[in-house]
Amino acid sequence: MGNPTGFLNYNRQEKQAESVKKRIKHFKEFHVSLTKEERKEQCSRCMDCGVPFCQAGMVIGGMVSGCPLNNLIPEWNDLIYKDAWEQAYSRLKITNPFPEFTSRVCPALCEKSCTCGSYDMANAVTVRDNEYAIIENAYENGYAAAKPPKVRTGKKIAVIGSGPSGLAAADMLCRRGHSVTVYERSDRAGGLLMYGIPNMKLEKSVIERKLNIMREEGVEFKKGVNVGVDIDAKTLLNEYDRIILACGASNPRDIKADGRNAKGIYFAVDFLKSTTKALLDNGLKDGTYISAKGKNVIVIGGGDTGNDCVGTCVRHGAKSVLQLEMMPKLPDERAENNPWPQYPRICKTDYGQEEAAEVFGSDPRVYQTTVKKFIKDKDGILKGAILIKLTPEKDKKTGRMMMKEVTGSEYEVKAELVLIAAGFLGSESYITEAFGVKVNERTNVLTDTSLHKTTVENVFTAGDMHLGQSLVVRAIREGIDCAREVDESLMGYTNL
Question: Is residue 151 situated within a structural domain?
């Protein structure tokens, strides 16, 4: 490394967030970047550590450690330190087709396994911020411009779904020279990136910027086309040499409680989509989206999507927000059975929870709690909920820990809006049945003799539809790997 003592000379410095009072008044990204000189200092903190766990992408102790894309992190950190920004971009793009996305929404598995943070996670290298600096500098200076392939193979591929895995597969196969058409049932391409992630985490202009480059390189996008409904699978199989199913795990997990049919209960994905769509269509005009304004809100689910719902409700002007988590609170520090470089299973306070705590005066999260019953008025409109406490108990048959209701722990809360953010179950049956692919008990698409080839000839799969709900960065890796298999099946070899 160019500065072997950088990690001793400089402290970790992240991009600074706007104050809560300021950022809750808008739906834009709210972090302020460092100067180039400050960024070079942060890159100089990358150690000559010998084994860069940050880029390993290994499974250690049953948990993922490092980057699933195997990004060459020490290399481009050193290049930034040496002021070689274009070369840093070239090294980054070798492994990551979409750093503009991952540098905004990835939970930074790399940083959690950084050797510099092995004793104190607060000292890890700012890998994600460094990646952000590389890609934004590349756009600013023209390095990220479109580079259409010079030779076309004449092969045609259809990608069904324009989420991160579908886009990654399309990008790689177009780069190889194949003709790629991406089908998207929504009115905008991007899938989860467009409508599943709020604007303040990933501004949609960032997505459109990249999609426009992909169009210039030759990828065709057909939006508002629901494959399996608007066009049948047989037509696509006859028209294209290969099909990639990358439709995501879009079946939201529901909850079973009396009164579930009350008016005012929505899945989180529908709530988030309605806000983003209204924001893009008409600047969030009242009446065009599911609004939390002036309402007591319950968010069921403690993950990233639940946090996004909390942050969105705060921006709407909710009266109160309560976030329910079935499981016990995670420890504030690593447990003995969760050592570095495993991903730390610790309690984190994300932007939405931070905002709700400041606006409403207390942390919105309530642990080991779920809804027992929804209360509705005579017109069927939601007005409250009966909550009940849960406690972990070991199942005598399976030996697994299960959350059981605590008798007599019920209590009532007001609620005019409930958002279910309990995760996703898997693929939607109409699309898997249309192509005749087999699925497992979780409705994830089964693959045949290779990692991504389905049980149907010339049909491949990638992303959450294949693995189940996961991270954007893993979906991208899935798309890349699937593209390699498709390319090899078409050409007899692959150089992707």
Answer: no
